Amino acid sequence: MTIGVCDVNPDETQRTVYFLRSQIKNNIIDNENVRFVSYNLDSVMLDIDYQKFDCDIFITELLYPNGKNGVNLAKRINAVAPSCKILFYVNKIPEELDIYEANHVNCMLKGRHDARLVTFMNDLVEKMNNDDKKQFIKIRYDRNVNILDCRDIMYIKIENRVTIYYTNRKNDQRDGKYYEYRPLSEIMKELPDNFVRCSAAAVVNRDYISNYNHQTVTMVDGEEIKIGRRYGDVNANRKEKVVQ
User: Fold this and answer.
1) Residue 211 and residue 125 share a domain
2) DSSP letters of 83-121?
3) What is the reported pLDDT for 29?
4) What is the CATH number for 70?
5) Are residues 194 and 76 in the same domain?
6) 53 contacts 25 by C-beta, under 8 angstroms
7) pTM over 0.85
8) Interval 126-142: pLDDT, tens
9) Tell me, what DSSP letter sits at residue 18?
């Protein structure tokens, strides 16, 4: 899990990162896989523009120099990474800003709410790690990050050592395919339970199955995917709950 922190200056950013890191060491936030990334406003905007933004949780100030603000930043993040949980951690809440223009999970005052920040972050990290209804998945390819809604994924195949996500996101600019280099065994851990393994090289979303038999699964786009001998019984049992 990646937690991004952005404040008006590096000292404030590092203070928040150090504070939360120290709580992780004290097991208040008990997750060894949490990674912190320190941002300034320019660096986070560059990551967004170059499709490299991959934070699961993002903590930001509201007031930045030159009239820039955290609400507009949060709206940009909402657009490119809808699964990212945004938290405003601020010196004050200015009257001229409507924080509800952007999707966020909380707004807290520095100093006054530090203990509450730790408790909230602990609960949020635990909830996100244990959520069985995973809706989004992050994929990385050619230094870019794409965040896919799992409901848009029809099936996933490994072809020529490349993992390809076949989605319903087809338009004039895109054929609906997304790519990365990652084994299916690892990807399956991040998918909701309506995804099933058909073979060593294919995973299907049961919501997009048109029909199936003991040898193949036919998807709604006409793609026929072979069922591996090792996976046949498991997949047949799971698909019956959807198809019949």
Assistant:
1) no
2) TPEEEEEES---TT--GGGS--SEEEETTTTHHHHHHHH
3) 62
4) 3.40.50.2300
5) no
6) no
7) no
8) 787 765 556 888 888 88
9) H
46/104 Cα distance (integer angstroms): 21
Mean pLDDT (the chain) is 85
- The packing angle between helices 10-25 and 114-130, to 10°, is 60
CB within 8 A of 185, min separation 6: which ones? Answer: none
Among the three residues 130, 157, 174, which one is the final residue of a domain in this structure?
A: 130
Do the Cβ atoms of 70 and 62 come closer than 8 Å? yes
Contact between 61 and 7 under an 8 Å Cβ cutoff? The reply is yes
Least confident piece of the model among 23-37, 58-72, 213-227? 23-37
Dist. CA 158–CA 78, nearest whole Å: 30
Domain that holds residue 159: 149-243
DSSP state of 227: P
Number of domains the chain contains:
2
Say how far apart CA 139 and CA 163 lie, in whole Å: 10
Q: Both 114 and 9 in a single domain?
A: yes
Calpha distance 145→101 (Å, rounded)? 25
